[in-house]
User: Fold Ribonuclease VapC22 from Streptomyces jeddahensis.
Amino acid sequence: MRLLLDTHVALWWLGDSPELSDEVKGWLDTEPEVYLSAVSPWEVAIKLSIGKLPGPSDLAERLRDSHFKPLVITAAHGARAGQLPPHHRDPFDRMLIAQAQTEGLTIVTRDSWIPKYDVQTLRA
Assistant:
């Protein structure tokens, strides 16, 4: 499977949260193609700086330095994100959807609105 982590899933993995089932944790620890978008550390850093996310000040760096494959943001991703229907306005999630669509990835998420887009999802 080629997986792209939603930011909350990456944070749950990093914190060994009981929110993730053993099955999902196993996939994230063993699947060779699990991607972390550049948008996730960016989102975490912004939310930390404005007080919307509790955690250590180096949380974004911890995500960045995880064992997941990095997925950069390209101009193609930006163009695709701008073309998505307005089901949801969160720019970080819209970028994840655009990246998954462009790269043929399955988003691992718990968000209920992401499946409204034409994108493969795996419930975390």
Notes: The chain has six helices and five strands.
